[in-house]
Structure formats: structure tokens, C-alpha cells
Amino acid sequence: MNLSSPPPAPDYVIPARFWAWLGTPRAVSGLLWLAALVSAGVIAYRAYTWFDDSPLLPTERHRGDGNGGHAQIDFGGQWLMGRMLVTGHGQELYHRQRQWEVLREGYPERAETPLQRVGPRTDHYLITAPRPGEHFAHDADNLMGWFMGTDNDPVREWRISGGAGVAPLPVPCGDQFTGVALAAHADAQATSELVTTVQKPSIGGPLYPPVHALFYAPLGLIDDPQRAYRVLQGFSVLVVFAAGLAVNLLTRGRIWWSAATLGLLLFPGTRGAVDLGQNPALSLCIVLWGWVLATRGRPVAGGMVWGLFAFKPVWGLAFFLVPLLLRQWRFCAAMVLTGAALGALTLPFVGLHSWFDWLEVGKEATELYKVNENWIHLSRDLQGIPRRILHDFTLPEKERDKPLTNRLAWGLWGVVFGGTVLVYLRRGDRTKLTGLSAGMLFLGAYLTCFHFMYYDVLLSAVPLVLLLADPRRHFRTSTFEITPAPSEPPLPPDSRGLPSAGREPAMFGARMLGYVNSFPLTALALLYLIENSLSGLDLNATVGVGFFASPAADATTLSTPQVKVNTGIRSPLDTYVLLALWGWCAWRVARWDETSDGP
Predict the structure, then answer these.
(1) What is the mean predicted confidence (pLDDT) over 219-238?
(2) Is the pLDDT of residue 1 over 90?
(3) DSSP class of residue 223?
(4) What mean pLDDT value characterizes the chain?
(5) Rounded distance, CA 335 to CA 551, Å?
(6) Taking a C-beta distance cutoff of 8 angstroms, is the pair 344, 318 a contact?
(7) What is d(CA 342, CA 217) in angstroms, rounded to the nearest whole number?
(8) Pair 493, 499: CB distance under 8 Å
(9) What pLDDT, on the 0 to 100 scale, is given for residue 57?
């Protein structure tokens, strides 16, 4: 017998060469890439067809262009900013009169439904509405109605201020002297103040700053907003792949590029952003790649990347807290200077006055955010939580905001902001740009962003990625043995016998074990469950809070604030999960767990 010969290979029904490769890293990565590509295709197809006309609707409700996604405020406002700039109207960026002209040219009536073109009819086809909030106005009218600001009425101004001079202009036949006198009187009434009032621009429009118009100028070059909408949707999907690569680099290869891309495609916010043509995927890319550069010893380059948030200042201000508390001064300086440079770059195109116009638009939007039912329920910021509970949405908007609601809204924001700053300054590890302290800091910055919507939850992936950069410590599960109590009381000891040595634990056999999951892993699983299952089910429940009851509008009954919970996009379940995760991170940092080997 030859002892050096290898043992015979085991026999399998299917030869090993056909399946052994499945367990190799290359095969697993390939399968993950396949899943990511399929998911990207499904998301893109869903986004392309989400606003398609339903074949079940009558023809009078079918759009001429077949899809109305580009006519929603989410994309329409962004396209308008870029279009205003490339058509030479940058100096009038927030002038509603000019916005009307650009929108009416870009959204022709032939692309609308027959009902939009001719108005609603009273036949039996109008009994069932296909979607909530259907509008029979033209696309341009809808968009201008959703934007900030109101329009001046020049006809009304002429009637009020100049009517005294214009009305007597009819002249008696053959009376030339009377005609001259009336003309002189009318000219006297048309003062410079009246002309200024009539010609004064109505300030309003989308909420985006002038830098946003600069960023979206390439889309503005596309004169058809529907085609530009498709381009932006495809670009958003591709940007997710770029963000996946950043996750791979940020975790030092612990998370494969394929797995990171698949995880981001299925993460809350991605689907809604692509459907609507919104930009959180680009914002996510900015945060991730800026921090990748920071972790690799290039703070100036990272700060310059974050300076691109000049196109979304609310996120720039929120995340500025991170390098500030980390004392990354070069990062902070590069971020501020880059943002300022981008702002200065807009001045030749839009002028300085457009920035002041934008501040006026933002001020109006801030007040509307406090009372508008749709914005409150679609938002995910902390200040919206008390308002969705305590506001009586049956009242007019001007009567909804109360001092108590404002105090609770700012109080909740202050707890998270102050807690983040205090815990990090006292116990945070500034030497680590990833891990527990950094994750808590990014979570606090995300949660304290002033106002943001449900699709912006995608940016909460960043703190989870920072926790995953050290999975051994923060994503580790544990088990413990459960020993049931005896079902009967033990027998009394026998004084004549020897004392019992007790029951020895069995080395083999069945045992009862308890399982404790990692809290961050549980939060991550809940976020995926909400996005990919519960959101589609749209479960609903309502609970009244009688303690805060107040007189109703008719002054004869009490209006009880109600907590309406649902699993759709109008409920901030994801914010509750992330708030709990922030609390867990703060507690662990406060216990010095980042420098210990605790559980």
C-alpha cells in the first residue's frame, strides 16, 4: 500500500466541478453584483414608469406625453432653476413673472391631459379619481402654485391707483379741449410710484439657492423637461454605484463594493429619490467621498468636496458640525472657502440681489414648514415630530402654530444637538474618523438638520457605514444560557446521609440559550424592513391624546390631538429608529465603550 497517495475523492451525484466554485469569494462577489444590477434595473424601470398613465383610466385622463413625473414640484423646480440660467434669465432667477414664461414654454399644453386643457367636465368618467390630489390646472399653473411667493396683479394696481386718471378717457365727440385735459389728468395720475408698483417683480419660486442653478445648468440645456427628468433618474442610479465604491474604501474593504451598492440601492430614500428625480444620492456621494479623503489624510481635498454642499446649504450646515468638533480645521476652512467660491461664481450670472431674493424665499418656506400638513407629514426632521402630533390640521394654516408646539419642537432638536456636542466633547475619541464616536457624531448632525424630506433618509446611511467600519465591536451578537428553576421544591436534607454535591452541568446534550442581537444590526434590519416591506403595506393606526385637547373651531367641542401612525411615507418610522440608534451610540460613547472590550 502506498501511504503517500491522496485519499480517494468522495463521490457526488453532481460532480464538484459544477458547484464547488459557488463558495469562493469571486463567485459570491459576482452574485452580489448580479443582485445589485438587477435591483438597479428594477428601481430604474419602476422610476421610469411610476407616473405613467394607468390603462384603466379613461382617455380624457391620459397625458399627451404619457408620464407626469417631470411635472411634479420635486423635479420641476430643479429643472426651472437650470433653465432660467441657460436661457439668460439668471438675473431674474426668483422673479415669478419670468418663471411663468419659462415654464409655459417648457410645459406645453399638448403634453397635458384633455381635462387639463379644457377643464373638468361633469360626465360619469369623473366619479373615481385615479390619484389623491389630482389637479385639472395646467402643469405650469400647478408648479407656480406649489412654489413660494404670490403674483402681483398689475390690472388691480392700475385700477386702484390709476383708475381715476384712466377711467375718464372717453372723450365727447368733437370736444378736443376736454380730451386734452383728460389726457393730462391721466398722465398726472400715472406717477413713478404707480409704475414702480406695477413693474415690481414678485419674488418667489423654488427653494434652491443660486448655486443649485449652476449645478443644474446641464439639465437646463435640455428644453424638454421630461427628457431631462429621465436623464436625472438614470444619473441618480449611477451615482449610487459611485457611493458604493466610497463605502468600500471607507470601511477598508470590509464591505465589498458590490454589497455596498446593493445595500444602498435598497436603503430608505433611494427609491423615492429616483422616482421623483430628487438629489439625495448626489448628496450622499458628497458626504462619503469627502470623508474618504479625510480618513486618508487629505482633509483639504475632503473639505473641498463637502464645499459642494453650497447647492444644499441645510445639509452643509448640519454636517459642518462633524469636522468642527473633530477639530479638523483645514477641512473646515476648505469647506467654507469652496462654498464661498461657488457662491461668488454665480454672481456674474445671477447678481448679488438674487441671493437676497433667495433668503426671502427661504424665510417664507420656513414659516410654511411649521403649519403645512403635507410638508410636515412628508418631512423627517425632528421639529416635525411634535407638530404632526399637536397641530389641528382642520384649522386654517395661520391658526395652527402654537407656542407649546414650537417649544417642544426646538426642545427636541436641542436635546439631540446638545447631547451630541456634550457627549462627544467629554468622551468622544477625536483620533478616530470612523467607529462609534464618529457614527454618533454623524447621526447627531443628520438628525439636527433643520428641515428635510423622507427621501433624504438616504444620508443616514453614512453613520451606519462608519459603525460598520468596526463591525467586530458594534455588530457583535452574544448568547447566554438559560437555566430553568426546578418545578418542585427540593426534598429536605437527610440528616443520616451525606450532603449532596449538587447537580453537575452537562457537557453534552440539550441546553437552553438566549440570543442578544446587536442593537445597530437590529436598527439596520428595521430600516430595510420599513423601506422594502412595511412602506408598501401602508398600515394605519390612530391614538388620541386627550390631555392636550383644546376648543375646536366651532367652540362647542374639544379637538383632541391624535397620533396617526402608518407605515407609509407619511410616517417617520425611520426617524424613530435612527433617534433610538443615536441614543444607543451616545450611551456607549459616554461609557467609554470605544476604548474597552465591552459587549
Answers:
(1) 96
(2) no
(3) S
(4) 84
(5) 50
(6) no
(7) 14
(8) yes
(9) 84
Tell me what pLDDT residue 278 has: 94
Cα gap 408→317, rounded to integer Å: 22
Task: Give 125's pLDDT tier (boundaries 50, 70, 90).
Answer: very low
The answer to whether residue 574 scores a pLDDT higher than 50 is yes
35 burial via Cβ count (<10 Å: 0-12, 13-18, 19+): middle
Per-residue confidence band for 378, with pLDDT thresholds at 50, 70 and 90: very high
Q: Vertex 304, ends 300 and 310: CA angle to 5°?
A: 150
Average pLDDT over residues 399-422: 95
Could you tell me where the beta strands, DSSP code E, fall in 1-41?
A: none
DSSP assignment string, 353-380: HHHHHHHHHHHHHHHHHTT-HHHHHHB-
Q: How many CB atoms lie within 10 A of CB 366?
A: 12
CA 220 – CA 339 distance, rounded (Å): 22
Cell 407626469, located at residue: 68
DSSP type of residue 533: I
Would you list the DSSP string of 110-179?
GGS-HHHHH----SGGGSS-SSTT---S-HHHHHHHHSBS----HHHHIIIIIHHHHTT----TT-HHHH
Where is pLDDT greater, at 1 or 185?
Answer: 185
d(CA 544, CA 567): 18
**561, 547 Cβ separation under 8 angstroms:** no
Whole-angstrom Cα distance, residue 226 to residue 70? 5
- Taking the C-alpha atoms of residue 189 and residue 165, their distance in angstroms, rounded to an integer, is 6
Return all residues near 69 (Cβ < 8 A) that are at least 6 apart.
Answer: 47, 50, 51, 75, 226, 229, 275, 276, 277
**pLDDT for the residue numbered 198:** 57
C-alpha cell at 277: 428625480
- Indicate if the pLDDT at residue 424 is higher than 60: yes
Would the pLDDT of 578 be above 70? yes
Q: Which residue has the cell 381635462?
A: 115
Per DSSP, the three-state class of 559 is strand
Cell of 383: 421639529
Cell numbers found for residue 594: 470605544
Query: What count of Cα atoms within 13 Å lies in the side-chain half-sphere of residue 34?
Result: 6
Find where cell 418610522 sits: 573
